[in-house]
Amino acid sequence: MTFYDTVYNDDDKYVREIERLKKSQQEKQKKIDELFKQKKNEYSQNFTRSFKRKIIERDKECQLCGKKEDLVVHHISYNRRKTDKNECVTLCRSCNCRVNKKSEREYWRNYFVNKLHYQLNR
Ligand SMILES: [Zn+2]
């Protein structure tokens, strides 16, 4: 084996490794795109930026802790396909995490319906 053979063989090794990584990158990107699509499909088409802005303008602050920044719109019924102003409430990002815990959803659903008198259109 000459010096040049060794270099070419090594090159092949790198090219193969690069190709392998490119392929796995493409597969990852495909999975990411698919997950984004699935997430988007979970929401109603009416859940737009302007809808969310209206809810936040109505509530003005997090309805749990009163924070005025980093606000998001929470679905009281946890049904993201139902986008109605009576189904949605303004929370800050950290309270939203709190109320989205699977084990506590029933509690928080009742909390918003009873204490804040939001009416769910079931
Ligand atoms: Zn909060």
- What small ligands are held by the chains? zinc ion
Q: State the end-to-end CA separation.
A: 77 Å
What spatial form do the alpha-carbon principal axes imply? elongated
Number of E-state strands: 2
Instruction: Write down the overall mean pLDDT.
Output: 88
Q: List the helices and strands in order.
A: HHEEHH
Strand order of the largest sheet: 1-2
- Estimated helix fraction: 55-70%
Domains, number:
2
Largest sheet: 2 strands, antiparallel
Strand content bin: 5-15%
Structural class: mainly alpha
Given the structure, what is the number of helices? 4
Q: Low-confidence parts lasting 5 or more residues at pLDDT below 50?
A: none
Radius of gyration: 24 Å
Please describe what this structure looks like.
The chain is mainly α. It has two domains: 1-42; 49-115, no CATH class. 57% of the residues lie in helices and 8% in strands. It has four helices and two strands, in the order ααββαα. It has a two-stranded antiparallel ribbon with strand order 1-2. The longest helix has 40 residues, at 3-42. The radius of gyration is 24 Å and the shape is elongated. The protein starts with a helix and ends in a 7-residue tail after the last helix. 15% of the residues are buried. The mean pLDDT is 88. The structure holds zinc ion. Residues 62, 64-65, 67, 91-92, 94-95 line the site of zinc ion (ZN).
